Amino acid sequence: MDKKWRIGAVSYLNTRPLLLGMEQSSFKERIDLVKSYPAQIAQDLLDDTIDIGLVPVAIMPLLKNPQIVSKYVIGTEGEVASVALFSQVPMDQIEKVYLDYQSRTSVALAKILFKNYWKKEVEFLIATEGYMNEISDTRAGIIIGDRALASLNRFEHIYDLGLAWKEYTGLPFVFAAWVANKPIPAAFMEAFDAANAYGLANLEEVIALIPASEQVYDLHKYYTENISYTLTAEKKKGLESFLKLIQP
């Protein structure tokens, strides 16, 4: 029997199009799929408990031989909607910022933007479960994923990190990519990319399978305007720029 590849993926709405073909076709017999939040999938790849992970790109410098193995990513050409700084006061009044424990990339991006784009010094706070309820007065917070989409109507001020990066650099941004910690056979990756592509070509099927209770945002807009799934040359430039900026 052929080897089953261990695949780790983020369990957010933004991954549903990429995962549909893996979960609804014969391809699922070729993989063991694990779903969690970004920072945990990143740790799984670092610990070698998975072979390929849809991981925050900020962990790539921590891997010995990181390889982006797919042409599909979680990226944005501008406004991403699901990664933002939320606050009840405007930027000039923010003093402290909670950093979402679920993502390494968004935390690193926020620090870059505060230093280089907003040019503002704040105290960063390590967030724990329930931290969103502490966002008030001069305390703001980075929220990502489905929780960010559900928070879009809860706060007076929202600073979209994808849009801020685009305004700062002129480039799109890659939040997560399919990264391997070992060589992966080309034949498997061809089938892997085909599985990724299936949901992107059948977005109405993807949306129909998502319970109404989880549809806290216009998912057609999210999948076609906010999230950009193809690793283009411009996204590679944006990724290279980001990785340089997070170097110690």
Explained architecture:
With 248 residues, the protein is of the alpha/beta class. The chain has two domains: 147 residues, 3-Layer(aba) Sandwich (D-Maltodextrin-Binding Protein, domain 2), CATH 3.40.190; 87 residues, Periplasmic binding protein-like II (D-Maltodextrin-Binding Protein, domain 2, 3-Layer(aba) Sandwich). It contains nine helices and eleven strands. The strands form two sheets. Strands 2-1-3-10-4-11 form a six-stranded mixed beta sheet. A five-stranded mixed beta sheet has the order 7-6-8-5-9. The chain is globular and about 55 Å long. The N and C termini lie far apart (45 Å). 41% of the residues are buried. The mean pLDDT is 94.
List the helices and strands and how they pair.
Blueprint: E1 5-10, H1 16-23, E2 31-36, H2 38-46, E3 52-56, E4 67-76, E5 83-87, E6 96-99, H3 104-117, E7 123-126, E8 139-144, H4 145-150, E9 157-160, H5 161-169, E10 173-180, H6 186-201, H7 203-208, H8 219-226, E11 228-230, H9 233-245
Parallel strand pairs: 1-2, 1-3, 6-7, 6-8
Antiparallel strand pairs: 3-10, 4-10, 4-11, 5-8, 5-9
